[in-house]
Amino acid sequence: MKASPATIGLGVTMTIGYGTLYYSFSVLAPEIAREFGWGQSFVFGVFSFGLLAGAVAAPVLGRFVDRYGARLVLCLGSVAAALSLALFAVMQNAWQFALITLAAEFISLAVQYDAGFAALAQAHGREARAHITLVTLIAGFASTVFWPLLQWLLTFMTWRDIYLVMAAMNLMIALPIHLALPRTRLTEKPASTAEVESAGVDVDGERRRRMVLMATAFAAGGFVISAVGSTLLVLMRDLGYATTMATLAGSLIGPSQVAARLVEYVRRNLFSPPLTAILAAAAMALGLSMLAGALLAPFAGFALAFAVFYGAGQGLTSIVRGVLPLHYFGATGYGKTMGTLASARIIASAIAPVSVIWLSEVVGPSAGLGALVAASLLAVGATLALTRR
Question: Alpha-carbon distance 243 to 310, whole Å?
Answer without folding.
Answer: 19
